Amino acid sequence: MSGGEAAHDRIMAEAERIKALGEAAERGARDPVNQPTINNWLEAMGNTNPRWQAGEAPPSMAQVWTMYGLGGRPPADDPLHGMMKVLTDEGFTAVLGTNCEQEYRRTLRVGEQVRVTTALDSVVGPKRTAMGEGYFVTSRNTWYVDGPDGQDEVVATMLFRVLKFVPKGAAS
Amino acid sequence: MTTITAGDRIPTWELPITPTLVVSTAISTRDFQDVHHDRDIAQAAGSKDIFVNILTSTALVERYVTDWAHEVTGHWDTEVQGIAIRLGAPAYPYDTLTFTGSVASVEDGLATLTVTGSVSLGDHVIGTVKVAV
């Protein structure tokens, strides 16, 4: 155990506080959906689908548009990074992505401006795993564009789960 | 030309993993985490080498499925509606990522595909892909 019951209580209390924030830390993509960024991705992936040369963006690029980029930092109120910091401070220093579940409502089109929110979905633990003891942290991202009627239109969602853990053999 | 049917097997796709593939795909997904492009840092962090990032695992699953759907149907209109992946062994340079898959079900115009991408260390990615057919 890293920190014992008191640490677990602190972790779960913070998890409840952050979950209650709901969708938070909204931020916009640096650039609108654009062909040069799509082309770089197509070349790297070896993807030759002609639809992605004709005004549509590949579905699994949804997350790319709102990546932080080089040197970008999460907003102070970001629920995922907030929860990660809580666990790091309690000694669960290592991180490993375990699940990524994306749903696409439709393909994005070149020129659309995407934005994303982040919510903390669940924190489960402590669990003993092959990697070491840790907590599974699941966040939910929702990508939006401005719909034609001025309403928010959801274009994609993602559940992302990481194991935040004390590496086996590490002093705790 | 034919249609996508439950029980169909998706032909195996073998993708050699090179340092260039790992780096170019990570950067093209705008993922600048150093473990995806800097071997010294990756090794100092306890990793054997740089390794494929998660956005690329998802993108390669998308390519595997849509290339096959194009072969089967003769068109590119198959809509990918969801990709859910579970991550396992890392994909390092000089290994081969081998994709296999099959059609689990087709109901109400929605096909559910199961896809596995494996490397020498074991399964790198186990995925479920939903496509409108």
Structure explained in plain terms:
Chain A: Residues 28-146 form the FAS1-like dehydratase domain. Chain A: InterPro entries: FAS1-like_DH_region, HotDog_dom_sf. The complex is a heterodimer of chains A (172) and B (133). With 172 residues, chain A is of the alpha+beta class. Chain A has one domain (4-167): Thiol Ester Dehydrase, Chain A. Chain A is 22% helix and 35% strand. Chain A has helices spanning 4-19, 35-45, 79-89; strands spanning 24-28, 94-104, 115-128, 132-146, 152-167. Chain A has a five-stranded antiparallel β-sheet with strand order 1-3-4-5-2. In chain A, helix 1 runs antiparallel to helix 3. The radius of gyration of chain A is 18 Å and the shape is elongated. Chain B is an alpha+beta fold and 133 residues long. Chain B has one domain: Hotdog Thioesterase (Thiol Ester Dehydrase, Chain A, Roll), CATH 3.10.129.10. Chain B is built from three helices and five strands; from the N terminus they run βαααββββ. Chain B has helices at residues 19-28, 39-44, 54-73, and strands at 9-16, 79-87, 96-107, 110-119, 122-132. Chain B has a five-stranded antiparallel β-sheet with strand order 1-3-4-5-2, with helices on one face. In chain B, a hairpin with a 2-residue loop joins strand 3 and strand 4 (110-119). Chain B is elongated, with a radius of gyration of 16 Å. The relative contact order of chain B is 0.24. Chain A binds chain B through residues 37, 40-41, 43-51, 58-61, 63-64, 67-71, 96-104, 107, 167, and chain B through 21, 24-25, 27-32, 46, 54-63, 66-67, 70, 76, 79-87. Strand 2 (94-104) of chain A pairs antiparallel with strand 2 (79-87) of chain B.
